[in-house]
Amino acid sequence: xxxxxxxxxxxxxxxxxxxxxxxxSSVVHAGDSxxxxxxxxxxxxxxxxxxxxxxxxxxxTVVVVEVAPDPVETVVLSEPGRSATMSASLGQAVQLNFAxxxxxxxxxxxxxxxxxxxxxxxxxxxxxxxxSKAVGSGDSxxxxxxxxxxxxxxxxxxxxxxxxxxxTVTVTKHGPD
Length: 177
Description:
Strand content: over 45%
Helix content: under 10%
Largest sheet: 7 strands, mixed
Number of domains: 2
CATH class of the largest domain: Mainly Beta
């Protein structure tokens, strides 16, 4: 969801589901704001509410944006590394999946990113966070990590707010210490 042209100093933006359950919320400020992508759990009616804090008042435009699924690629790791150049549109994160074995060492490099600000993360079996950091446009790196178990792993580059763009994501398997 996007809030544009808000004259409200501070407000809560909430997405409500069936039964008036809060599915997502964010504090928004005057100007433009964004509530990151939410997966709706079921078919049905949903509502959005913008609730100004205290005595604040004003106007804002709230737009609900349908977002395409995140682009996902799967690679087979080899010694100099495998890469994929991927694009993220508004509300999308890019994901690179690979199979890993316990004890393998991998690193992640992002090059040529046009995404202004994003979170770069390496996720393990059961979506456990193995490494994560905020990155900007250009080149970034997650230092070498030892995989704790055999199974499926992923690297996600998740742009902040309304940022979008392209990046080349490379996962490299390293030899023993």
